[in-house]
Amino acid sequence: MISLKAFHLFFILLSIIIMFGYGLYEIFTPKNPGFTSYVATFFSLGMASLLVVYFFQVIRKFRTL
What we know:
With 65 residues, this protein is mainly α. The protein has 2 helices and no strands. The protein has one domain.
């Protein structure tokens, strides 16, 4: 059975991939060209970068547990 730590890391990685992928999708093939697409791109790439920072903080925290 998968541990809670491993599941948490897997879920964060999955979230990073989804957010980064959607940001790239909106850059190359915008669903609604214009302001809405720019907001969606900025939000998803911003969240992906914050999730990367969170991922490394969680790894550092799990080393001490």
